[in-house]
TrEMBL record:
Protein name: RIB43A domain with coiled-coils 2
Pfam hit, one: RIB43A
Superkingdom field: Eukaryota
Main location: cytoplasm
Record's subcellular location: Cytoplasm, Cytoskeleton, Flagellum axoneme
Family statement drawn from the similarity comment of this UniProt entry: Belongs to the RIB43A family.
A single GO BP: flagellated sperm motility
Amino acid sequence: MAVALPKDLRQDASLAKRRHAELCRQKRIFNARNRIIGGDTEAWDVQVHDQKIKEATEKARHETFAAEMRQNDKIMCILENRIKRDRKNLCKAISDFQQSFQKPETRREFDLSDPLALKKDLPARQSDNDIRNTISGMQKFMGEDLNFHERKKFQEEQNREWSLQQQREWKNARAEQQCAEALYTETRLQFDEAAKHLQKLEGTTRKAVCASVKDFNKSQAIESVERKKREKKQEQEDNLTEITNLLRGDLLSENPQQAASSFGPHRVVPDRWKGMTQEQLEQIRLVQKQQVQEKLRLQEEKHQRDLDWDRRRIQGARAALLFERQQRRQQRDLRRALDSSNLSLAKEQRLQKKYMNEVYTNQPTGDYFTQFNTGSR
């Protein structure tokens, strides 16, 4: 039992859809009444209905995108406000922690960088009656300011006023920043609305452009069909005229007289020449046969020369081989003669050495020298 696979089911559905479309097309085409009276209004209605559904779907999709964009913008604004609030709380927590647990006074090297070190230190002169104010200390002069404490109090009051003024300016700047952020958010929403409106206008314009382009393409297609018909008709007429001229002309009739040149009987017109005559072909074949025979004769002579050279080379190689063998034989005879002479000389030297040794051992030294001198004389 065969099992239906999803691929087979899809293929069957596609074939069924194609059969249904073919049946609908045949009903539209083979219906004589509709074909004689006019176009297929049912197909047009279906196309109009499909176009309206497509436009409604596109409009709903654009509206969905616009609503999603507005929702994303709102979420983005909320997230930005949340990030700013979290950043503010974090900075505030860090500042509180530093003020509570990381005071400058608790640092190990604070005494080296204490800005109030000079204020905490004892002044060089606490009063005019200070016992440390010696003459050599030069701490007391005429014309000095005796309202030091009042001036210091005034400076502290002035610093406090400046600090309060800085706090007020910081609060005003913070309020202006919040106002600017609110204005920025409102401006972004306005820009989104304007973008949505422009998108709608663009869609409308695109539809109008598509319709105009469709009409223009339709007119161009009709014009192209008419132009192709005219061109085809003109081409058929030109082809018929060309065929008639060729049939009646000298080109296809192969008239050999049309190739005759006005410069002499031995010359022809290249673009009208229809080929050589039988006499010319026979003359060319005769010349080719002569050339073949001449080539065969030259090849035979070359072959004979090659054989002669090979024979000479073999004879030379054989003579060189015989001469080399003779030289080797002579060298071997000379070596044997030299070896035999060397052997005889060696035997004589051994015998002489043996004789000398025997004479030296049997006779005294004086007698030996006397005999030797006698023998030498």
